[in-house]
């Protein structure tokens, strides 16, 4: 494993650095050991020199559906750009430290609509997250709720009556940090619910002495992170299999 880690020694991506440190995920290499693919949750990180045959073998065996593909290697970026079955989009990276302002976080937490309730994720709500497409990723890279708890996972749901309309959760848990995921039911977007959840997650993370890492999937997520006090490092390219949009 240590030899395989050398493929990523110069990478800056928080998810890669923290994931390898915590020995999470799987690393695949080609026969010549000139190329590697690091699979972590639903993320895939190609490193080393681009190897089209290696890529094709992995794609055929493991599939690309629902995977987010990110590389810091120029040869892999050029290769991924050439793949007609992939859709390129922009994500945003944030620093793994921040000086969060307690007053700002309190303001966002108190902006919860009067008819909406905030609850910690428990076994029942964790199970319910799998039932709708907008929320299933919030279960994170865990086999079940017991695994989620044992690994140090936590989060919150927002409920309108009995209905979960938004949630935040730990997609991955590292040493001293967690990767957070936020999602809002499409019909309830644009109400500031992500900021409420983000603030609650930051406060809870501080209580647990872990840092809540944020990596924004889109412009809306970027704006939420900045409003909560995260430091933007910059935009970067990411890829998804086009077939994911047809499922």
Automatic annotation (TrEMBL):
Pfam families, sorted: GNAT_acetyltran (PF12746)
Superkingdom of the source species: Bacteria
Residues in N-acetyltransferase domain copies: 116-247
SUPFAM superfamilies per UniProt: Acyl-CoA N-acyltransferases (Nat)
Name of the molecule in the record: GNAT family N-acetyltransferase
Organism in which the protein naturally occurs: Streptococcus panodentis
């Amino acid at each position: 494993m240590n030899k395989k880690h050398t493929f990523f020694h110069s990478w800056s991506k928080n998810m890669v650095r923290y994931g390898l440190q915590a020995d999470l995920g799987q690393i695949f290499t080609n026969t010549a050991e000139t190329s590697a693919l690091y699979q972590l949750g639903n993320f895939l990180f190609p490193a080393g020199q681009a190897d089209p045959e290696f890529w094709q073998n992995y794609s055929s065996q493991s599939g690309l559906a629902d995977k987010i593909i990110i590389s810091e290697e120029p040869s892999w970026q050029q290769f991924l750009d050439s793949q007609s079955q992939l859709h390129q989009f922009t994500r945003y990276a944030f620093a793994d430290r921040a000086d969060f302002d307690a007053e700002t976080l309190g303001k966002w937490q108190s902006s919860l609509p009067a008819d909406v309730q905030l609850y910690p994720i428990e076994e029942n709500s964790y199970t319910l997250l799998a039932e709708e497409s907008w929320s299933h990723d919030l279960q994170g890279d865990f086999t079940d709720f017991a695994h989620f708890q044992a690994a140090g996972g936590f989060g919150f749901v927002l409920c309108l009556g009995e209905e979960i309309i938004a949630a935040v959760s730990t997609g991955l848990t590292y040493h001293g940090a967690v990767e957070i995921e936020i999602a809002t039911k499409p019909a309830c977007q644009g109400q500031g619910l992500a900021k409420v959840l983000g603030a609650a997650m930051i406060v809870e993370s501080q209580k647990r002495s872990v840092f809540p890492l944020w990596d924004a999937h889109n412009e809306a997520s970027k704006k939420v992170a900045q409003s909560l006090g995260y430091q933007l490092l910059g935009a970067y390219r990411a890829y998804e299999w086009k077939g994911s949009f047809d499922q």
